[in-house]
Fold each of these.
Amino acid sequence: MTEPLLRADKLTKHFVTPRTGQTVRAVNGVSFEMFAGQTVGMVGESGSGKSTVGRMVVRLLKPTQGSVTFRGRDIAPLRDRAVRALRSDLQMVFQDPWSALNPRMRVKRIIQEPLLLHSKLSDSERSDRVEEIARSVRLNTDLLTRFPGELSGGQLQRVCIARAIATSPGLIVLDEPTSSLDLSVRAGILDLLQELREETGAAMLFISHDLGTVRLVSDHILVLYLGHIVESGPMAKVFDEPAHPYTQTLLSAHLPADPRTQLHRHLLEGEIPSPIDMPPGCPFSTRCPLVRDECRTALPPMVDIGDGAQRAACIRIREGSNQVPL
Amino acid sequence: MADLALDGAPKERSTIEKVWGKVVGISRRSPTSIIGFVIILFFGFLALLAPLLMPYDPIAANPNLILSGPSAAHWFGTDGNGMDVFSRVIFGSRFAFGIAIPVVIIALSIGIPIGLYSGYKGGNIDEAIMRVVDAFRVFPSIILALAVVAAAGPSLLNVVLVIGILDAPIFVRVVRAEVLALRSSSFVESGLIVGNPTWRILFVHLLPNAIQGAMAQTAVRAAWAVRISATLAFLGIGIQPPTPEWGAMIRQGAEFMVNGQWWVGIFPGVALILMVLGFNMFGDGLQDLLDPKRRSGGK
């Protein structure tokens, strides 16, 4: 078995609120692996901690506990200076392209900044490389002399992607890269990501709350709920046979493209609990339709399903009573 | 560019046309700022061409002509040493600019980096810096300036340094406030993800987006510098007579005022008022132009 490119082990992030001093348990012991060239989709509601996990993976945030092993080295305890050297290999694309670009920098300077910081290319080599990258993200090279304010949302997100791939990183975290874009533009960005994955061979961690988008791009799925991974597995398996009650309800809430499809939905009641006031035991126990008394006492462990590629954290899986009636 | 013109895009305008368009826009929105600018320009012209414009040496005393009133030979009369007031008022504009410009430069170059760092770092560092800034603010700056200049010695250099340092907290506050608003926007985060060290985040990414408020303040702060340096000289702490500095001249003039020799103090006083007014009027327009929060639709 090959070494994973990235291994997150029991990643935990707790924030302390400045006024009240309460602890926000944003991420609680998240473990997963990513291999070179793989696209992993991470799904969850807002407040599930998915963006926090993404930011810890690229070390924009320092984990409270746990380790992030990237290319065989634990990057969690590194100091800022050491993390900076890793930036050429570890990149991220943000949700909102309108605010992710310095409004007073021309597009060309934005895209070449990582090259300036991480390579020893001459000015003319850098210019050539910027044009090459711009073409590879289907960005008209005329736009290189413009300021971000003069570009459309889709073009801006292409600039963000161009900047992220400029130094050919091994791993790119994409934090909801399409959710603030128009539907028509979204498809173009997803196509581009698919192409870049084949061209560059970079592994991608694709964070989204939109199951349809994740399904299009991912090989592997992680389902997050209240800072816990409740289910993980190959994309097709998780979508066809979701094991965890939360994944089942999440998939049943997703609208299919065909409006005539018969819907079998189980709509969850209530809101995701506050990460300040975590329920004891299973994080999903407050909303789970299959909840039992023992769910509320201890955190359920991840259980292998079938050949072990798919795993979920529910105590009812072993006895086969984990199906939510739809 | 030919294909652009076909699309109906506006024809490329020359730089002069653009600048002129801006000037017309400003003068329509705030005519006072144009008046202010003209006043500053006028004094700048006096300062630059002082040697050509002065009929007499500003520090040449003529013992035969002490305290003579305005006449054809001495338009503004002569002072208690028999020096030509007209020449001294003209030369005084050099001191006004010589103080105002370095003071603003010193205040900017201290205030901007501290404001950037304080706003970006936040937390305890920011808290500590802001308490120091508050301490400066609650203490009347004229008293502080008096004390420090009196202790350090009343040279021009000391006056400029002290006033410049005292003025820095204003720029710290303005820049910090803008950085605080920008810090949460993700272009700072994406600057970090690309691998920028802190100094590049501060000066390459934050500074160009946070400097407008500080720039808008510069003219008003220049007015303040002119005023406070003249005040120091008037109180006898700053620049010493017989240097042709307006504050020092007003001080001398005040002594003769009661005897009816009004011209010694009034003319440098009018010059001082005009220049401070000019900077303030221009500064007001500058703030309207640069500070989007002050930009109002109809006025």
Note: Chain A has a mean pLDDT of 90.
Amino acid sequence: MLTIGTLANIKHILQKELFNSSGERLLSVVTVTKTFKKKDKRACYLCVLTTAPPVPVVTLCLVKQYEQRDSEYKRKRSWQLDEIKWIDGRNEQFETHEFDIQLEKLYKWYALNLHERQNFLAVLNRQIQKYVRGPRAEFRNVPQAWLSEKSPEKIAAGREGRAGNVTQKPTNSDDEEDEEEAQEFTALTDKEANELGKLFSECDFAIKDAEQFIEQLSKELHDLDGANMQSVLASEQKVLKMMEHIDNAITEADKFETRLDTYEDILGHVKETMEKIGGKNAMIEIANNNNIKLMKELNKVISQLDLPHSHQQALEDPDLKTAAGRKAAIAAAQCLQQAMNSDIDPALLRLEAVQDQRKRFEKWKQKFSTTVSRFLNNLFIHLGNEIGDMPLTTTELVLPNHSNVHRELTPYTELMHWSKAMDRKTYDGLMRVYTASLSKIYDRDIRNFFNLAKLQVSDKLRNSREDLDMSTSSRKSAVSTIPYGTLGINRDQWGPGVDSADRVRFDALLEKVLAELEPIALQEQLFCINFFQMDVISPTTKNTQTTLDMEKDKGVDMSQSFNASTASPTSASTDAGGVPQKRIDRQINEEVRKLMMGLFSCLEPELVSFIQSFERVDSFYSLYVLVRLTQHVMSAQDTHSFLSMTFASALVQVKRNFDRFMQQQLQSIKEAKLPKRSKAILPYVENFENFAQTAEGIFRKSDRRTDMEKWYLQLVNAIFEGISIHSQEHPKTPSQVVRMENYHHMYSLLAQLKVPGLDALKKEAKIRYNDALKAYVTQYFGRPLEKLNQFFEGVQQKVAQGVKETEISYQMAFSKQELRKVISQYPAREVKKGLENLYKKVEKHLCEEENLLQVVWHAMQEEFIAQYNYLEERIQKCYAGAMINLEFNIQDILAFFSDIARSH
Amino acid sequence: MREYKIVVLGSGGVGKSALTVQFVQCIFVEKYDPTIEDSYRKQVEVDGQQCMLEILDTAGTEQFTAMRDLYMKNGQGFVLVYSITAQSTFNDLQDLREQILRVKDTDDVPMVLVGNKCDLEEERVVGKDLGKSLANQFNCAFMETSAKAKVNVNDIFYDLVRQINKKSPEKKQKKPKKSLCVLL
């Protein structure tokens, strides 16, 4: 068992070894073993510690003593007081060793010393009461006296003091000044011990005389008080001095502050100045930049508007005759154009220098333009005259080629382009002069060419007509007003015509004329497009394209440039739709066409007149001209060119003539009158053969077949109608024969022509022909055995009334005797004689050309056999077994017919 | 009997001749032969009146455009034909119409806008609404037709006759006023 001494001892040891170094003070310690750990029965120490004032922190600390290194204590754990939840003493009996402390967990301790335990618990309680704010740990099963009483140590100490010697009194009284301090055992420090030893040595007498010692002590105290007072007084002076110093410091500080203010002021000024300087700098920079820009702009303007001296000279006095001079002039002109169109800001245009330069340019331009104009003008006229003076080749049908003119002019192309852009008036004027001089030549050429062509037409006509004149001169002169080939008029009344060989020649002539025209026109057109730059559209309303004009006409300028931009091909091609491009093309074509029209003004009338010259010699001309011209018009590549359109217009004229011609033919059929000495074949039927063959010869392979076939239909229909009407009016021939023969003629003709569009009419002709044949046979063959026929008609009547066929012979009128009597009237000889007469009659009716006699005769034979068979059959039916027969049989009939036919 | 001069205009191959022949002869011409110029006469009865139509079927191909001015000068009523199967034929009509108005020097010309070949619905590229709006713009009648299927063919010409009648009514000979007895 440990005693209080050992307890004090351990407290001392712990304080010294462990806590002095950290400045903490041990308030209470208890030696414990842990009851909750069975194995570890080693003793450890539970301490209450406080840190040094002024802010004491009281902690609970567990200290262990390591066994191996005996002397070493180690702080194992420590807790703050407020971590303690509660403390359980287990039992209020003093002899209880165990106690529990609830911290983060429950710790169960076994105290080795009961006094230590009591003291520890009491100290812990007091410290908790003193320092823990908020909920304080609860003490359970601890005697109430421990928690309120003073610590047992103190009681012991008090007891000791009362019982101990006097020397310990001041220590004791010191202790009592501070309850806390008193509790503690404080060792004297070395210094204190020395002081105390010194004091004791000085006053060693005091042991003997206490009063003297007290006196000495109070005297010393008094001295010390005095010294204290003196030092206090002395320090006051020092304070005053210090105050003075402080005041001084303040004034110094004030001074310093004012000085700082001054500095700040100065700095402010500096800043302002600096800002101003910065602004100035920026301005200077801007000005500088502007100057640079201005310089650049001026340089640009000057370089753009500068025209080298050599160019000036070239413009002043251009030499357009030589190639080198031309080259220089063109270069100078282009340079001038470029300068006049240089991209200069509108504002800069107001510069007087720019305007001056512009005026100079204008002057140069004017001068140069005039020179060029005069030169080209003269050149055009000269070239025109030169060619005009050349003799014409009058024999050959060739259109002269003027490519040499184009060759002469080609070097000036660029000058022309220049004047188009720069001087519209000059350009237009030059174009007019060109057109005038060249059109004179073309006029002459074309007139001459067509005259020659016309001459060839009439030449051929004369040649081919001469023999015609010989044979028909007597009749022709009176009736020549009726055009050749008129369907409705008899052939011998026609005026003079030409044969197909002539037509081929005319056609070839026409082809040659057209073929001659094409290259000439195309060549001229190509040259003009290139020379006058007609494939580029530029505004026409403004004379000069320059950008240097002043603002006064800016409004106009704007619209101009707008027009130019919309009309120029480049901008149009960027347009999404194809329409603008198409429009532009059209406009270009329009202009080219206008120019060509000026150059070839006489072409269309001459061409039309040439074509009409055919009309006089050949009424069929419109057919092959239509075909030939169509080939040229429809196959043309440049459908919009002047020549294509000229040809097309002529073609429309020809088509109208063609339609008119056909209309006349149609009319002539409708109005046809039968001549007195007319043949069986009507004139239009007869003429149609020739007509159709001619037409087919021309149209067989042509694209225009449709046009012809339309008229075929109308004509053939009219012919059919005409046949029906005229067959009635025919003076001699019976109408059936007229119909039969004419329809037959039409049928065979249509079959020959093989025109697909006329198939239906061909069939119709055949039907009509057959009908007419039948009608003719019926009418003229009639009933050669008339009485027999009548007899049997009577028989049929009786049968119809109900008399049986087998009982007919019992009728009085139709007895066998009667029948025999009738039959006897037609002996074979008589019958043959009758047939012979009929044959003669038919022969007279029919014409030789159609060769239908055999056909008709055969049809009559068929008819006669049919009648014979009918009669025979009737006889067999009604008079069966009476042995009655006609007096001739079928063999006889066939023999009669063939005999008669053969004998003629 | 009053005569009506009608001109059929439009680009090549739109069916001008097919429409005309269908109207005049009631035949559908299948084969395409570019027309040069054909004129037809047909007598019809419109609103109880006998009319003689003189129809000029013109060439659509470009070479013949020079003739148009003449056609326009002589015509009284115009049929503007396009094909619903070819956009360009539709686009060309704008210029044609402008030319007519220029030649006639008036805004009020009897005219019918015709979208032909409406039987070829699968090949259609010009919508009916487009045709309608163009007709609105032209301020004229509009119909889609088929010469092949004989749709609306007669209506074109009847409509045109009515337009001509409305624009320039036939000057009827004024009956001489009977002299009235005047009571003095």
Note: Chain A touches chain B at residues 579, 626, 630, 633-634, 636, 639-640, 644-649, 651-652, 655-656, 659, 703-707 (CB under 8 Å).
Amino acid sequence: MNTDTQYLHEVAAGDYEHGWVTEVASDTIPKGLSEDVIRLISSKKQDPDWMLERRLRALRHWQTLHDKEKHPSWAHLQIPAIDFQSISYYSAPGKKAKYQSLDEVDPEVLRTFERLGIPLKEQERLAGVAVDAVIDSVSVATSFKEELAERGIIFCSFSEAIEEHPELVRKYMGSVVPHTDNFYAALNAAVFSDGSFCYIPPGVRCPMELSTYFRINQAGTGQFERTLIVADKGSYVSYLEGCTAPMRDEHQLHAAVVEIIAHEDAEVKYSTIQNWYPGDANGKGGVLNFVTKRGICQGTRSKISWTQLETGSAITWKYPSVILKGDDSKGEFYSVAFTKGRQQADTGTKMLHLGRNTSSTIISKGISAGRSNNSYRGLVRIGRKAHNARNFSQCDSMLLGNRCGAHTFPYLETSNPTAQVEHEATTSKVGEDQMFYCNQRGISEQDAIKLIVTGFCQEILGKLPMEFAVEARKLLAIELEGSVG
Amino acid sequence: MPARQALEIPFVHAVEKCFAEHLHGDLGWWRDRCHKGMTCFRRLGFPTQRQESWKYTSLASVLRQPLATGGSPIPYPGPLPWVDGLDAHVGVFVDGRLDKSRSSLASLPPGVLVTDLHRAGFSRACNLGTLANSTRHPFVALNTAFLTGGAFVLIDANVFLDKPIHVMHLATSNRGRLAQPRTLVHAFRESRASVIESVHLESAGPSLINAVSEYQLENLTHVSRYELQDPAAHVSCVSSLDVTPGYSSRFENHCFTFGGDVVRNNVRVLQIRMDSETVLNGLFMARNRSHVDNHTLVHHAVPDGFSSENYRGILDDHATGVFNGKVLVAPDAQKTNAYQTNKSIVLSDTARMFAKPELEIYADDVKCSHGATTGQLSEDALFYLRTRGLTIKDARTLLLQAFAGEITGEVPHAALREALNQRVTASLQG
């Protein structure tokens, strides 16, 4: 084994940084899923009746899917059988389901976020990022609310939005991802416990990055949060999402739904750094990340951009999509997916062109190490009426080691002759010539691989907001240290 | 899917009835294979759109047609006019039997055998059904179940054939409207040959051609195959090709589709010997309500393999095109180079194109890429030609000829290339 592969193996064996557990008394409901459980969650969240009804409707739909064993099995993944009755669908740190102020929050929970580097206290604000911190099933705190409110921006936890802005929630929730969309969207619509809500009024450019931080803490639970972002005419918002979880031997389920609505001339930029616990080197434990993310460019000239850095999770099943309904609207998807150990990722996007002169760009970089499998799966659909639609997709894969897999499954469906659809994909490894060049200049093998991989992803990392880009680079470097050889 | 079952049941019944009649015939040594094929087919059934590999292709229009066994026999078909008179060794197979009077095989050099499968004998044709897998592919199973004959081509070691061999299947179809030609080609060490395959069926009503070809290439061979598909608008066609190239051998497949109702081509190349090369080229021109689906799989199981694919399509009217190309690189297949391109031009508002170029890679020291584009003719190019005095129609034709020429130009036999170019032009003007 040469030093090059040795280093790659070391990278593949790296440790998970956020694997610790917060010791805090928690209110966790018994395991299982039934109408009673839904009613219990609903009463804990003090839902209005219409919300309970929606939950029950979703549950019934999910049960029919579950009975017919219609779990999505088409992805290039080996998903272990999930016992949906052995998961607790609600867990709150401390005794409260809602917090009025930070003073009510258990100091242990606050320390958790401090340790994760999430500034909750406003005096500790760093770069002017407003954060909604969600631990297990409860939103702990949302910062900068007042400052945002001055401009008419609503940024709060989902529970609060249901209470204070029911008209907005009723109008938009489920409008992009209905509960009938897929198995996990149905599950989420039934049991979701919290999440973030954000509304940007017409013509407002959100002055700071909005961010949600998700953490799973309790054992035996899953996290089912919902994010809803509505950008009204001519507004702009950049939204960040981060997530971590402790190391557990069992798989934990994370089935979230994110919906984005962009009206005329609005722009939404959604960035994710996904760093859920990936399981140990033998594939034991880890988060099953089954997420439905979709945005709709409702108005003309609107734009939705997804940027993601996927490094965690035992299994990732995630396809952030854009429905390009408005004329001249734009969709973007930039992704870096890094898998190592026995991680599996099947991720990509869907760009559904419906309006005229719509355009979409897809750039996906997959890096596989160890014994992992990393797939890109993307759909570009040009509808009959989508005149002059334009799509460019590029997906590059890099293999670090000879026991991993890199796969590409693009679907290009064109029903309009004026469309221009281009797709290209390549697969390669770190070139010997590149390594030689670096070594020759005195750069160690390890640094050279870091340099090459970072360079491979640069196009995407550059799209992340500044605060995230720094973190992303660090994260990628840490991941590589644990796994490259 | 009850609706689908309702559609399928009469068809399957007809197949079962035919099978019972078919077994009364003189079956010789492959009776077991027929039974095995039928068993597999019963288990598999017809594929549905719920299956990933048939996602874009519906067989409803094929299955809706009655598979009549009686009635007036289909008239004797003539060869395709545009390949008639091609300088080749022609073997004409009428319903799977070699018709010597219509064939011109007199000038075949020694060491080359073109004959009936059932006359080839077990020792020669023992590979029949071993390359094309009945257990996984329903149409292969169906073909195998009704195996009454077929073409067998053997090229002995060290034989270099200049002229192509043309295997021409004619279906007079006393078996209803289901023609199932079969071809087995075995090229021995260091041989070189070209094989043209075409199926001709004339029928007044809707019919289905279910062709299966198997190519076994020994070490250091070079075999090119040309598939010419030009069925009438009411004839559907499912064609399956399975190939295993030997060590350091080269296999080329050139597939040309100019018509048909539902056309589905399955090409599966299993590279299990090192250093082998595969080239898959395809051109499909579809108009009216034609649906053309090209499915390819190149499985690189061993190191040092090479494969290159280039498929092009021109779609007009209500036509639908599908390209699903998959390159699979197994964990040990290091140093594999695999390239894949698919380009399609959509000419009308109602034509559609679905492309799914896949890569599944488990080895790290490989170079693999694919590219797919769908679009229309470049405005700039059209403008340029118009400034040179060409009419819009001529300019379009010229550009489309050039587009198709990238595929036809790869055909080394001048006469065949010319015939193909003329067929392309006729198709563009028609």
Note: Residues 122-127 of chain A have pLDDT under 50 and may be disordered.
